[in-house]
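Internal tracking record. Fields below are filled automatically when a chain is submitted to the structure queue. Please do not edit lines marked as system-generated. If the sequence contains nonstandard residues, flag them in the REMARKS field before resubmitting.
Queue: standard
Priority: normal
Entity type: single polypeptide chain
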Amino acid sequence: MPWTLPSRPSRRSLLAGTAGAAGAALLTGCSGGRATDAALTIPLERRMRETAVRDSTRLLERYDATAAAHPALSARLAPLRAAVAAHTAALSLTPSAPPSPSPSRSGGTGAAAPAPAASGEPVPPAPAEALTALADAERSLSESRTIDLAGAPGELARLLASVAACGAVHAYLLTSNPGATS
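SYSTEM-GENERATED OUTPUT FOLLOWS
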């Protein structure tokens, strides 16, 4: 059996392929790629910010529901809730009023019945379990935001990284001393 060389593409087809790729690269470069990139980045950033604001708002509602169900935890939760409100404002595309304080609680003594959080999940009846549930929500959102970093534009990525780190710290603080109520 005679030995044959494998077929090779002709020089003409190689040049045509190379010219096609180079031409596409030149056309992309000539089109002012920055304008195209900006047109794609703005809607992406808007969508990412809207999602982040919605998630932060849900977390604020969880803080409010937990504080309403366990008034003894209000003082402990207040600074963390204020930070989440500040994150919500920072992530928002529109300037907003200063973050509102958590709703006031009136009267009532004794144990509160489990209050449903805005997400539909009830607040656990035991304070330690309520703090753990809130820490789990913080941790989950922090992990989600960390994953979102890969697709986020520069400034938003930095902001999401900072907010995700804060969420991880909040989760730690909420569970570091579960026996403490204030």
